[in-house]
Design goal:
The complex is a heterodimer of chains A (237) and B (207). Chain A has 237 residues and is of the alpha/beta class. Chain A has two domains: 163 residues, Glutaconate Coenzyme A-transferase (3-Layer(aba) Sandwich); 36 residues, no CATH class. Chain A has six helices and eleven strands. In chain A, the strands form two sheets. In chain A, strands 1, 2, 3, 4, 8, 9, 10 and 11 form an eight-stranded mixed β-sheet that branches. Chain A has a three-stranded antiparallel β-sheet with strand order 5-7-6. In chain A, strand 1, helix 2 and strand 2 form a beta-alpha-beta unit. In chain A, helix 5 packs across helix 6. Chain A is globular. Chain A starts with 7 loop residues before the first helix and ends in a 15-residue tail after the last strand. Chain B has a single domain, classed as Glutaconate Coenzyme A-transferase (3-Layer(aba) Sandwich). In chain B, strand 11 and strand 12 form a beta hairpin. In chain B, helix 3 packs parallel to helix 4. The longest helix of chain B is centred in the N-terminal third of the chain and has 9 residues. Classes of the chains: A alpha/beta (237), B alpha/beta (207). Chain A: This is 3-oxoacid CoA-transferase subunit A. Chain A: It comes from Lentibacter algarum. Chain A: GO terms for molecular function: CoA-transferase activity.
């Protein structure tokens, strides 16, 4: 089966529909599927729900889909650095579900692993726990009960992901901290489309060094990435 | 009274050889400048890295290499990368010995508020709720009072919580307090700070 496509638009052809739920990789502007997000903008698909740790900045990442009002709801842990996001949220145009960062990552991973719910201590006693099932488990240092809350797995219609290298079968290698949410987002999608900096010949990746096997990957494109830096910090030499 | 750097230097004394630790944004980040001689600690960055190095020298910034504050950083010989689910797996799983975090308010029972002020712009909790729920020990580094001179060390937090009964120790510009049965205990006073001054600036019960 052919997984390699010629462009982001081709790779998304037939997969997009209004009201769909998309999981996106990236942390801040690092490891963002920037070409696929641009192609979703160009396709004009509306009423999107995104599970994504952040919302990009005004003119990069999911921010470009906020400008065109294609996003209905964000499931995120941190949405600073985006003025248009705040404007739409405060005016009620945009729904926002805050998830603790680790809960969001695990919800994506769990969904991809066929686990519809899991218990976590994160958020117990905070607004995050409101309305969620509470359960005690004997996990304390001396076997005493500790309280957990039930969080649910996320099952996305589509995952959009950025990796460093892929082979034609979809085996992926990520680079440094650009890995971040990309593997759990990929796992959460019924269909996963990946953009990479380089498609290498099948057989050239060391099978022991593959970060995400091609079973999770349905379509791949190679492209040029801007890879914008959000906070450039340096020390004197 | 301690300044930011003195608070960071005092917080660095909390580090033990061999520990894996997570440092929050702000004063906690400065702690890495004061790691005592002979103490080897590995810094975790919750976006997927163990073995966080210093900022790069100009021209060596890498957009694929950032910390949780989205700043460009560098790697070290022992660095390892992983995805966000595994990163929070090690946090939630108790593998990180300690987190040093900033705070807006801390209560005498260890409640921590550091993620939102109702009515103000809400940016999100990021990884703070996972960290305080999962790591072995939570140390807060913050100014003892806010800019209006009001105590940030309270009987009960007024702001929405990040975690319930999660803080073990507070290091402020006035000294060091531990969360113990019945309230807070003074462990240490900063240079030139009297117990009376500490008591006057603390709304929480001091035992």
């Amino acid at each position: 089966m052919k997984k390699v496509y010629g462009s982001a638009a081709e790779a998304l052809d037939g997969l997009l529909f209004d009201g769909m739920f998309i999981a996106s990789g990236g942390f801040g502007l690092c490891g963002l599927p920037e070409l696929l997000l641009q192609a979703i903008k160009d396709a004009g698909t509306k009423d999107l729900t995104f599970a994504s740790n952040n919302a990009g900045v005004d003119d990069f990442g999911i921010g470009i889909l906020l400008q065109t009002k294609q996003v209905k709801k964000m499931i995120s842990s941190y949405v600073g650095e985006n003025a248009e996001f705040m404007r739409q949220y405060l005016s009620g145009e945009l729904e926002l579900e805050f998830n603790p960062q680790g809960t969001l990552a695990e919800r994506l991973r769990s969904g991809g692993c066929g686990i519809p719910g899991f218990f976590t201590k994160t958020g117990v006693g905070t607004v995050i726990a409101d309305g969620k099932e509470h359960k005690d488990f004997p996990t304390g240092p001396n076997g005493e009960d500790e309280t957990y809350i039930l969080e649910t797995g996320l099952f996305a219609d589509l995952a959009v992901v950025k990796a460093w290298k892929a082979d034609a079968t979809g085996n992926l290698v990520f680079r440094k901290t650009a890995r971040n949410f990309n593997p759990p987002a990929a796992m959460s999608g019924k269909i996963c489309v990946v953009e990479v900096e380089e498609i290498v010949p099948t057989g050239s990746l060391d099978p022991d060094h593959i970060h995400l096997p091609g079973i999770y990957v349905h379509r791949i494109i190679q492209g040029d990435h801007e890879k914008r830096i959000e906070q450039r910090t340096v020390r004197s030499a | 009274m301690w300044d930011r750097n003195q608070m960071a230097a005092r917080a660095a004394l909390e580090l033990q050889d061999g520990w894996y630790v997570n440092l929050g944004i702000g004063i906690p980040t400065l702690v890495s400048n004061y790691i005592p001689e002979g103490v080897e600690v590995t810094l975790q960055s919750e976006n997927g890295m163990l073995g966080m190095g210093p900022f790069p020298i100009e021209g060596e910034e890498d957009p694929d290499l950032i910390n949780a504050g989205k700043q460009t950083i560098t790697e070290l010989p022992q660095t390892a990368y992983f995805d966000s689910a595994q990163s929070f797996g090690m946090i939630r799983g108790g593998k990180i010995a300690m987190a040093i975090l900033g705070a807006m308010e801390v209560a005498e029972n260890g409640d921590l508020a550091n993620w939102m002020i109702p009515g103000k712009l809400v940016k999100g909790m990021g990884g703070a709720m996972d960290l305080v729920a999962g790591v072995g020990r939570v140390v807060v580094v913050m100014d003892h009072t806010n800019k209006h001179g009001e105590s940030k060390v309270l009987k009960e937090c007024t702001l929405p919580l990040t975690g319930k009964a999660v803080v073990d120790r507070i290091i402020s510009n006035l000294g060091v307090l531990d969360v113990v049965e019945g309230g807070l205990k003074i462990v240490e006073l900063a240079d030139g700070v009297t117990e009376e001054e500490m008591r006057a600036a603390t709304q929480a019960t001091l035992v």
